[in-house]
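Late entry, evening session. Most of the bench is empty. Finally got around to the prediction I had been postponing all week. Sequence below, unchanged from the version circulated by S.P.
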Amino acid sequence: MTTRRQFITSASAAIAGLSAGPALAQGWTVPQDFMPRLIQHGREYYAPGEVHVEPTERRLYWVLNDGYAIRYTVGIGRAGLYESGDFTIGAKKEWPSWTPTPDMIERDPDSYEQYADGMPGGPENPLGARALYLFSGNRDTFLRIHGTNVPWTINSAVSNGCVRLVNSHIAHLYTQVPIGTRAVLH
């Protein structure tokens, strides 16, 4: 059982990690509050070494070899923009650059048109500290599991389709997940 003091200490450390910059992933460990729980949804057990996103729970599970998983709270795509599917992690990038898709610019030109030529990686970038690129076969889907520069949006449906985590959590997940990993967005 986590005590109030342990929770406050863990939460303070996580919040402090949000502004830690490029050294963020070095030496990061996941607080015990985020550690294993048996993963079973209905009659299905998730396979070890897979990423699963449950949009109704707003949770991402990184499944470990022993039938347990690390659970992260995530932000997901808003209504009509969440795209379920079976993907593969085709690329990983630290402090990735970002360019809005043409659909994003068309939906909201006031927010995105100014970035049509892209934005370099860094603390102000919407992809945050790390990104896992979701591929379908050899094709980049332009969907990402990534950090965020707006951590208060976690546990809500606000993105343009990507799955977002706070920067300290994506930094940890990034070190765990190899290229080629199966990622299922349910």
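Two things to note before I forget:
The chain has one domain: 4-28+75-185.
The longest helix spans residues 4-17.
Will write this up properly tomorrow.
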